[in-house]
Each structure stands twice: as structure tokens, then as C-alpha cells.
């Protein structure tokens, strides 16, 4: 029995999954711990890894990531609150929103939370706040857009010429302006870039990192000492949604970075990463129940309870965010060609619009009412992100001491959660 089968079977035994199930999100904490140890094994000790909370904002998951040694990268006041609730100390949090209010900025600087400045207007606000709080321990950086182009998905590419993020490095005389900005502000000790997320090649990400590393060197030389001590190189490692294989691996990314920017792998700079999707996606899954099936125009349709409310990207942009599904019968047996007829199937969600589909025209073992559908690799940016408070699924955290143990399923199961607050408070 593979691990996912075990999880389903354990959850059925523990009555987490039953005939009343609509949809449930499961996080595998043992898998998560292994992923974090893979990250630490791939990079040297001058790297500090923070987790991009936007990818999974569940307090229990964040507490675990903190225990496994990660910091937290937050991009909104809500994420900051959640990270603090999960126990991250100020020095391990970095605030990256592009729309920070003056109050956001003040509370970061007052409470020693590090941040990256997005633009010149924000810089003016920080100048004032540094006068107000000269003793702050916040480490402050400038977010730089290297303008090196997009990956395969426009909406997750952040280093295009016209990106909304950061200071456009190659426009006008911005490069020289940036050198002057750092020269006049000895408290600017970090520099940040994030080339993009899913759809970006490792070489594109590494090229962005190379540009800000060279810029940091140029600025430090112009100043005559090493004022910039931290390089914040963003997240963005893509995830393979097509199979259970972890490709690319953290080691492959580290190898590409080492080849492109060897300086990162010396002790000269502290390097901070902000991985999100690659930490959590493969350690989470959704299980939903088939409510009805029918045939329309020769297509088998299985209607479930997981759709656009928790699979938002897939429902609206299916070409960019395809997901794999596996069917299970109500006793937990995996459906295969040997126990069910293979038919062209659409697996649908519950929302009232035609595009609310998890997958379209897939050859699957025939699903029947009360079967379960497991939606793979959904631990990041799916049920862990609360686009629709009222449709939040129940959330379960799976831990197993070993592959063969089933008793430890569901340390925490929220059966009646109606809102984000319910989940966060009860977890
Ligand atoms: C600044 C920043 N850091 C990190 C991330 C995490 O990216 P990913 O989940 O692709 O690793 C994002 C996501 O867009 C981001 O904007």
C-alpha cells in the first residue's frame, strides 16, 4: 500500500472520511519534514530558508515549519498575524507586500520585523520611520526587478519589463540611482529579488539572482565596505504536477545557482530564500466525495464537492494549473483498470458555472456515487488559501511515525469549520 492509500484508509478508519464528507484537505507533516530537510541538505550554512506563508496559511502547518527550522516570508498583514500566531520570532519574519500602509511599515520597524521596500515612495516613508526608530533591528532591503523576462505563466512571472513588483533596474538611470540610495542609507543592508514562481526555468531564476548579486557587489564597492550583507533571493522553485516525482529538486536548483553565482556559496553573504509551493504542494491533498454521476454527450461526468472554491487556479486557468486525480471506492480501495471500466471522464466541482471542472476528458476508472476522488499536490495555494470563507473544506493534518502506522492520522480535524478564523483558532 502506498502512502496516499494508507492516508485514505487511515482517514476512513478514523471516521474523518465518511459518507457525509464533502471535501477535506490533508497535510502530511512527515512528508513536510522530509521536504524541509531536503532543502537544508541542498544548500550550505550561510543560507536561511523562510517559507512563503501565502502558499499555506494554516497555523498548524506553519508551527511545524518553524519547528523544522524555517522562517516566515509574509506578504500581507493577515499573513503576518498568522505567522506570529504560529510562533515565529520577529527576527525570522520578513514582510514583502507591495502595498504596505504606513501603519504596516511602522509596526514592522517598531517590532524589529525585517522588510523589503518595493518602490521610491515607500522608501520615503521608511526614511521617516528610521528617524523615528533609529534603534530598530529590522533588516531592510530594496526589492529589485532585474527585468529579465517571463517564464511560461505570465501571472506568476515577476521579472518582466513592466512587472508591478520592485524597482525596475534597467529603466533610465535606475541602476545608478540605486547605488546612490544605498550610499546615503547605511541601514540598507539587504537586497531582494524574486524572478517568479511556477513556470520559470531554473536558469531564469538563477540569472535574476546573478544580477542582484553583481549589483550588491557594485554597491558595496562604491560604498567602500560591505554594507549589503544579505541577499534575499525569493522563492519560485517549480513543482511537477504531472507525477509523484519531485522535479526539479532543491539540489538541482542549488547546483544551478552554484554554477551561475558561485559567490553565494561562500560565506560572504547571508542568503535568504522564500520557497512556498515547492515546500508544501506535494505534501498536501484534497479528498472529495462523488455525489452524482451521469453521461452527457458520451462523456462520464462525476460531480464532487471540490471545485473553484478551493481549486481556484485550476478552475479558471486549467491549461496552466492541471491537477491529477485518483479514484477510490468507498471502502478505500484504489480504482484501477483491473477493478473498473476505463471511461473518458470530467470530474466536476459543485459551483454553478460550466468551467468548474477539476479535470476534463481524462481516461479514468469509472467513478460511481460515494467514491472518493483524491486530488494530488494541492498542499499549496489550494485549500490552504481561503478564497471563499463559506466553502472552506475540513482540514486534517496527517502524521505517521512510519509508513505502516495508521493510528496517528488526523492530529487535528476541523469538522464544522465555517470560516478561516474557525480553522486557525481550533488548529
Ligand atoms: C516575494 C515572493 N517570495 C516568494 C514567493 C513564493 O513563490 P513560490 O510559492 O513559487 O515558491 C512569492 C510568490 O509569488 C513571492 O512573491
Quick rundown:
By secondary structure, the chain is α/β, with parallel strands linked by helices. It is built from twelve helices and 18 strands. Helix 6 (120-132) links the parallel strand 5 and strand 6.
Describe the overall structure.
- The chain has 427 residues and is an alpha/beta fold.
- The chain has two domains: 3-27 and 282-426, Lyase, Ornithine Decarboxylase, Chain A, domain 1 (Beta Barrel); 96-275, Alpha-Beta Barrel (TIM Barrel).
- 29% of the residues lie in helices and 21% in strands.
- The chain is built from twelve helices and 18 strands.
- The strands form three sheets. Strands 2-3-4-5-6-8-9-10 form an eight-stranded parallel barrel, surrounded by five helices. A five-stranded mixed β-sheet has the order 14-17-11-1-18. It has a four-stranded mixed β-sheet with strand order 12-13-15-16, with no helix packed on it.
- Helix 2 (29-42) runs parallel beside helix 9 (250-260), helix 5 packs across helix 6 (120-132) and helix 8 packs across helix 9 (250-260).
- It is elongated.
- The chain starts with a helix and ends with a helix.
- Mean pLDDT is 88; it is low at 387-393 and 401-427.
- The structure holds pyridoxal-5'-phosphate.
- Residues 52, 55, 73, 96, 194, 197-198, 234-237, 274-278 line the site of pyridoxal-5'-phosphate.
Arithmetic mean pLDDT: 88
- CATH architectural name of the largest domain: Alpha-Beta Barrel
Strand elements, count:
18
User: Which small-molecule ligands are present, each listed once?
Assistant: pyridoxal-5'-phosphate
**The CATH topology of the largest domain is what?**
TIM Barrel
Q: What share of the residues lie within helices?
A: 25-40%
Shape annotation: elongated
- Radius of gyration based on Cα positions: 23 Å
The residue ranges in which pLDDT falls below 50 over 5 or more consecutive positions are: 387-393, 401-427
- What is the CATH class designation of the largest domain? Alpha Beta
Helix count from the secondary structure assignment: 12
Structural class: alpha/beta
Amino acid at each position: 500500500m502506498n502512502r496516499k492509500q494508507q492516508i485514505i484508509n487511515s482517514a476512513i478508519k478514523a471516521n474523518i472520511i465518511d459518507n457525509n464528507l464533502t471535501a477535506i484537505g490533508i497535510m502530511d507533516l512527515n512528508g513536510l519534514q522530509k521536504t524541509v530537510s531536503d532543502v537544508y541538505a541542498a544548500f550550505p550554512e550561510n543560507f536561511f530558508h523562510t517559507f512563503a506563508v501565502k502558499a499555506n496559511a494554516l497555523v498548524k502547518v506553519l508551527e511545524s515549519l518553524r519547528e523544522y527550522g524555517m522562517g516566515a516570508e509574509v506578504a500581507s498583514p493577515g499573513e503576518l498575524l498568522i505567522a506570529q500566531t504560529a510562533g515565529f520570532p520577529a527576527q525570522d519574519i520578513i514582510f514583502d507586500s507591495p502595498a504596505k500602509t504606513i501603519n504596516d511599515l511602522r509596526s514592522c520597524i517598531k517590532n524589529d520585523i525585517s522588510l523589503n521596500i518595493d518602490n521610491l515612495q515607500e522608501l520615503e516613508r521608511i526614511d521617516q520611520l528610521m528617524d523615528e526608530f533609529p534603534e530598530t533591528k529590522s533588516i531592510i532591503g530594496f526589492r529589485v526587478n532585474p527585468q529579465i523576462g517571463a517564464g511560461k505563466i505570465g501571472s506568476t512571472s515577476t521579472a518582466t519589463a513592466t512587472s508591478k513588483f520592485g524597482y525596475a533596474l534597467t529603466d533610465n538611470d535606475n541602476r545608478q540611482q540605486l547605488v546612490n540610495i544605498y550610499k546615503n542609507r547605511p541601514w540598507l543592508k539587504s537586497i531582494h529579488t524574486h524572478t517568479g514562481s511556477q513556470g520559470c526555468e531554473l536558469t531564469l531564476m538563477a540569472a535574476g539572482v546573478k544580477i542582484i548579486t553583481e549589483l550588491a557587489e557594485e554597491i558595496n564597492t562604491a560604498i567602500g565596505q560591505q554594507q549589503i550583507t544579505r541577499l534575499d533571493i525569493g522563492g519560485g522553485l517549480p513543482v511537477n504536477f504531472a507525477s509523484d516525482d519531485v522535479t526539479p529538486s532543491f539540489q538541482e536548483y542549488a547546483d544551478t545557482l552554484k554554477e551561475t553565482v558561485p559567490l553565494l556559496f561562500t560565506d560572504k553573504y547571508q542568503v535568504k530564500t522564500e520557497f512556498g509551493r515547492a515546500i508544501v504542494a506535494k505534501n498536501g491533498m484534497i479528498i472529495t466525495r462523488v455525489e452524482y454521476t451521469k453521461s452527457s454527450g458520451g462523456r462520464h461526468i462525476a460531480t464532487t464537492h471540490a471545485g473553484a472554491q478551493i481549486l481556484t487556479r485550476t478552475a479558471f486557468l486549467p491549461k496552466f494549473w492541471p491537477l491529477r486525480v485518483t479514484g477510490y471506492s468507498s471502502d478505500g480501495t484504489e480504482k484501477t483498470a483491473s477493478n473498473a471500466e476505463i471511461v473518458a471522464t470530467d470530474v466536476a466541482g459543485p459551483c454553478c458555472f460550466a468551467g468548474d471542472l477539476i479535470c476534463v476528458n481524462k481516461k479514468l476508472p469509472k467513478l460511481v456515487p460515494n467514491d472518493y476522488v483524491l486530488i494530488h499536490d494541492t498542499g499549496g495555494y489550494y485549500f490552504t488559501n481561503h478564497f471563499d470563507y463559506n466553502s472552506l473544506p475540513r482540514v486534517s493534518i496527517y502524521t505517521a511515525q512510519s509508513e505502516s502506522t495508521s493510528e496517528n492520522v488526523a492530529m487535528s480535524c476541523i469538522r464544522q469549520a465555517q470560516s478561516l478564523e474557525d480553522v486557525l483558532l481550533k488548529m
